[in-house]
Design a protein that fits this description.
- The chain has helices spanning 5-31, 40-57, 75-87, 95-101; strands at 103-105, 115-119, 125-133, 136-139, 148-151, 157-161.
- By secondary structure, it is α+β, with helices and mostly antiparallel strands.
- It has 2 domains: 1-31; 39-161, endopeptidase domain like (from Nostoc punctiforme) (endopeptidase fold (from Nostoc punctiforme)), CATH 3.90.1720.10.
- It has a 6-stranded antiparallel beta sheet with strand order 1-6-2-3-4-5.
- β3 (125-133) and β4 (136-139) form a beta hairpin.
- α2 (40-57) packs across α3 (75-87).
- It is globular, with a radius of gyration of 21 Å.
- The N and C termini lie far apart (63 Å).
- The relative contact order is 0.15.
Length: 164
């Protein structure tokens, strides 16, 4: 004897829900390192990968002064949004404040995920982006442009690290 259609649908829905939950738990477990099975270097690499993926995901979103996502960004809003969503790190919505919150490093120590700050002659950080490696960085440049990965241009730069 066959069960009524409604009962079969409920059973199928429950089976799909259980399978989805099991797959999701497995996927998340394989993506996120566990505290006991991870070295500090592996945890750092995982965070850097997440930051790079979130920054790349925002490619093409328009620049808008004061915006912090998800549909538009200014420079510090992009950095704030990416770090919050990628690694649950809260940063201010201001380039200078982000510079002060970072550990200052030399250009020779730059690695992907570090912050790059354009500074004026007094050292005040007025623009920020996320270093992507090989001389490139992700940023929201200015009005009329979009979030993009660009070669570090000639400017006065300072550098900071959030992911240790």
């Amino acid at each position: 004897m066959r069960l009524p259609l409604r009962s079969r649908l409920r059973a199928a829905t429950a089976t799909v829900a259980l399978a989805t939950a099991a797959l999701t738990a497995t996927s998340v477990a394989t993506l996120a390192p566990t505290a006991s099975a991870t070295t500090p270097a592996q945890a750092r690499a995982y965070k850097i990968d997440r930051v790079m993926a979130w920054a790349a995901h925002e490619r093409g979103r328009p620049y808008r002064y004061g915006a912090a996502g998800p549909s538009a960004f200014d420079c510090s809003g992009l950095v704030m949004y990416v770090f919050r969503h990628a690694i649950d790190k809260s940063l201010s919505h201001n380039a200078e404040a982000q510079y002060r919150a970072s550990t200052h490093i030399r250009r020779s120590s730059l690695r992907p995920g570090d912050l790059v700050f354009e500074v004026d002659s007094s050292g005040y950080a007025f623009h920020v982006g996320i270093y992507a490696g090989n001389g490139y960085f992700w940023h929201a440049p200015h009005s009329g442009t979009v979030v993009k990965k660009q070669k570090l241009y000639s400017a006065h730069w300072r550098f900071g690290r959030i992911i240790h």
